[in-house]
Write a structure and sequence with these properties.
With 313 residues, this protein is of the alpha+beta class. It is 29% helix and 31% strand. The strands form two sheets. It has a nine-stranded mixed beta sheet with strand order 10-9-8-7-6-5-4-1-16. Strands 2, 3, 11, 12, 13, 14 and 15 form a seven-stranded antiparallel beta sheet that branches. A hairpin with a 6-residue loop joins strand 4 and strand 5. The protein is globular.
Length: 313
């Protein structure tokens, strides 16, 4: 079992996004066929303008690639996405020896794009793991904010934006944890997800988002896959306890994520660790780690190319 990871530099909207739109049309059409309704392009534009007005110009440019394709336009806006198989994930923030964030992304190799994307859209430089064509699973921006998502552990779905679009938007507009928290409190999220955000000061917040209740945003340094007042999956509770018990030193904790108790290899159940990302907010940098190697990237120096990663069955 293997996955090809790519690193792509897309300063302005162009070739990568356009190619991704074309390659993704069949999947998006099948995916949105499962929705109760597909919002029309005018509705999508209204909702983007109402909730993330800073993204409206980018949205207009992307819809130019989509043409007359309502499902693709809705997907590019991240509006009312149908359910997908939930991922796992563990995220923990550290302050020593410098602010940093470790995250394990747990899913199946066949169900992720595996594209490390650097952009300069609307003047804000952002680097992270791309998903949903224009969204992000995790990332960092040029003013020292890093963010990562996890599944929230509850199978509830509603109207709102996909979490990958919310992470993209947060990194496009937030300059610190306070601004990121404001974004998370006001953005309607279509599924249940948890988010961890850290800024260059080392301050971190955790958010629990869901379509059926208000957001819960509090100080915190770790998230896994359950939310307040809900009986957690045993594995989610175990991983949260493990993450919270780690000493506040990223160098001491790194091995626990990459090859220790926080690593998952249950690919038969679609939940294996596809990568560990180590974000350094103050440096605008990230190192993607696997058992057999690592790939450092930064906003000031992106190394385009490919890395093939082999996983245990």
């Amino acid at each position: 079992m293997e996955k090809l990871f790519r690193a792509v530099n897309e300063p302005q909207l162009g070739g990568f996004i356009q190619q991704s739109v074309e390659e993704g049309r069949a999947f998006v059409a099948d995916w949105y066929a499962k929705a109760d309704r597909i919002p029309d392009p005018e509705e999508c534009r209204r909702r983007v303008g109402a909730h993330m007005p800073e993204m409206l110009g980018l949205f207009d440019c992307m819809t130019g690639f989509a043409g007359d394709d309502p499902a693709m336009i809705a997907a590019l806006a991240g509006i009312d996405p149908p359910p997908l198989i939930p991922a796992g994930c563990t995220v923990r923030a550290f302050t020593r020896p410098r602010p940093s964030m470790l995250r394990n992304y747990d899913f199946h190799p066949d169900a992720t794009s595996a594209v490390i994307l650097r952009t300069e859209w609307s003047g804000r430089h952002v680097l992270g793991m791309s998903e949903g064509i224009s969204g992000l699973l995790d990332g960092v921006n040029d003013v020292g904010v890093a963010a990562a998502l996890t599944f929230g552990g509850r199978h509830v779905y509603g109207t709102g934006f996909s979490i990958v679009q919310i992470i993209r938007y947060l990194l496009q507009v937030a300059s610190d944890v306070k601004e990121a928290a404001d974004v998370l409190r006001r953005m309607p999220c279509a599924w249940a997800h948890n988010v961890l955000v850290q800024d260059r000061s080392g301050t971190s917040v955790r958010a629990e988002l869901a379509p059926d209740r208000g957001p819960l945003v509090t100080e915190g340094n770790a998230v896994t896959n359950h939310q307040a007042d809900v009986e957690p999956f045993p594995d989610s509770a175990r991983r949260l306890d493990t993450a919270c018990a780690l000493v506040d030193d990223v160098e001491a904790a790194r091995a626990v994520f990459v090859e220790g108790d926080l690593r998952k290899e249950d690919f038969d159940d679609w939940l294996g660790t596809l990568y560990t990302a180590e974000y350094l907010p103050s440096e605008g940098a990230v190192t993607f780690r696997w058992r057999d190697g690592s790939w450092p990237q930064s906003l000031t120096h992106l190394e385009p190319g490919e890395r093939r990663v082999v996983y245990s069955a």
